């Protein structure tokens, strides 16, 4: 039996989808444990791009069972859109996709509330406007609607009306309920399902959305998401006891990106940032917003290793750095006149990164899948990261396709 957690070690968009998809070849179950349709995992298989927002990345493997855990908030409209996309691409999901009956539902009115609250804030957070925050707010206040409620359509309608207070037209509510009914064949008591899978020694991958620095407790608050994106969220969000976790893989880009507002100490608002953006095609798969880009922050990465208990590091998009003659990485911060090796999660706006400059390789490594074929400067860059965070690097990605992967 193996239970592995895949976490984003930065601000999200690290390429978790590709890594989960790749590792799924040896898995029995892939479970999503938090977030909602505010995150997108982009997968490239046989040169075709798939973008998933709710359904776990392992769904492209025909023998993998996929679970949407209780920690996820589910937009029935987005879910049915994904079902249709998979059907159009002849991907059979029969008897291998399950939704926790304890997951909460995202109502259309939550999206309106999301945008209204964003406008009311003195400093906008940069929400995707997908209703995720209000859904989690109602979950915690015990006034939300759960997937379990879909089993009784009459009671479901009453609960929706009670929350919307007739703010939505009846025909729109009817249409929304129809989307909710599409979830019925997939509802399952996933706590017992996951326990049974563990007892049967199944190989399980737990995937999150967003990244550790957007965690509601450990991220750059208040510029964070509304759930626990860190590894602890996998236990509560997918009904997995902590004692059953075997390893935690932290996914990091070879540089840094961030979508939306909030502190980003190593951001490069200059030609370097533009080059990273263009070479990395840094456009959000959910919002279409351009991502902010900057140098790799090793202080932040080591903080992420600490709060997640990361046992292995995966580096993605290493090939994006091919064009640079020198590459910088943040290795400490200057804060209040003193140097620190601690990530100033609550004081990022006042902290200045101190960089170490490394030699670039200025060679095309895109698509390479043999570590020994990488330029020596590339290998040195990987070794520098590994030595700093004191965690082994187990996988390096040099392109979007499955085969563009190096196992260390």
Write the layout of secondary structure elements.
Elements: E1 2-8, H1 16-23, E2 29-32, E3 41-45, E4 48-52, E5 65-68, E6 73-74, H2 76-88, E7 97-100, E8 104-105, H3 108-120, H4 132-140, H5 153-164, H6 170-181, E9 187-188, H7 190-199, E10 203-207, H8 232-238, E11 247-253, E12 256-258, H9 271-280, E13 292-294, E14 296-297, H10 298-308, E15 312-316, E16 326-335, E17 338-340, E18 352-359, H11 376-389, E19 393-397, E20 405-407
Parallel strand pairs: 1-10, 1-11, 2-5, 2-10, 5-7, 6-8, 7-9, 11-15, 14-16, 15-19
Antiparallel strand pairs: 3-4, 12-13, 16-17, 16-18, 19-20
Helix pairs in contact: 3-4
Report on this model:
The protein is of the alpha/beta class. Helix content is 29%, strand content 22%. It is built from 11 helices and 20 strands. The strands form 5 sheets. A 10-stranded mixed sheet has the order 9-7-5-2-10-1-11-15-19-20, sandwiched between helices. Strands 14, 16, 17 and 18 form a 4-stranded mixed sheet that branches. A two-stranded antiparallel ribbon has the order 3-4. Helix 3 packs across helix 4.
Mean pLDDT across residues: 92
Biggest sheet, spatial arrangement of strands: 9-7-5-2-10-1-11-15-19-20
**N-to-C terminal Cα separation, in Å?**
22 Å
Structural class: alpha/beta
Number of strands: 20
Radius of gyration: 21 Å
> How much of the sequence is in beta strands?
15-25%
Low-pLDDT segments, ≥5 res: none
Specify the biggest β-sheet.
10 strands, mixed
- List the total number of helices: 11
Percentage of residues assigned to helices: 25-40%
Which word captures the global form? Answer: globular
């Amino acid at each position: 039996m193996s239970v592995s957690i895949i976490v984003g070690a930065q601000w999200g968009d690290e390429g978790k989808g590709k890594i989960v998809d790749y590792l799924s070849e040896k898995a029995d179950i892939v479970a999503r444990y938090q977030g909602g349709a505010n995150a997108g995992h982009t997968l490239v298989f046989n040169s075709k791009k798939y973008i998933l927002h709710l359904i776990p990345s392992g769904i492209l493997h025909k023998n993998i069972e996929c679970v949407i855990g209780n920690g996820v908030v589910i937009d029935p409209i987005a879910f049915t859109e994904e079902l249709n996309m998979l059907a159009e691409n002849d991907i059979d999901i029969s008897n291998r996709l399950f939704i926790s009956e304890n997951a909460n539902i995202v109502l259309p009115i939550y999206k309106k509330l999301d945008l209204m609250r964003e406008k009311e804030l003195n400093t906008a957070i940069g929400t995707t406007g997908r209703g995720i925050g209000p859904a989690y707010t109602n979950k915690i206040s015990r006034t939300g609607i759960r997937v379990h409620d879909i089993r009784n359509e009459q009671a479901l309608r009453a609960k929706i009306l009670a929350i919307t207070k007739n703010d939505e037209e009846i025909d729109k509510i009817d249409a929304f309920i129809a989307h909710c009914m599409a979830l019925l064949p997939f509802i399952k008591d996933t706590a017992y399902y996951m326990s049974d899978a563990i007892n049967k020694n199944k190989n399980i991958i737990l995937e999150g959305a967003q990244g550790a620095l957007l965690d509601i407790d450990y991220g750059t608050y208040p510029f964070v998401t509304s759930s626990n994106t860190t590894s602890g969220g996998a236990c509560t969000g997918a009904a997995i006891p902590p004692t059953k976790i075997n390893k935690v893989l932290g996914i990091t880009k070879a540089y840094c990106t961030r979508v939306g507002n909030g502190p980003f100490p190593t951001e490069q608002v200059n030609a370097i940032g533009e080059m990273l953006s263009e070479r990395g095609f840094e456009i959000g798969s959910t919002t279409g917003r351009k991502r902010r880009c900057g140098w790799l922050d090793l202080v932040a990465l080591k903080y992420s290793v600490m709060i997640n208990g990361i046992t292995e590091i995966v580096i993605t998009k290493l090939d994006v750095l091919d064009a640079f003659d020198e590459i910088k990485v943040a290795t400490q911060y200057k804060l209040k006149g003193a140097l620190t090796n601690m990530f100033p999660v609550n004081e990022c706006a006042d902290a200045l990164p101190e960089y170490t400059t490394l030699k670039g390789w200025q060679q095309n490594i895109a698509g390479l899948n043999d570590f020994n074929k990488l330029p020596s400067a590339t290998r040195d860059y990987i070794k520098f990261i590994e030595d700093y965070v004191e965690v082994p690097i187990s996988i390096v990605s040099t392109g979007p396709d499955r085969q563009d992967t190096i196992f260390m």
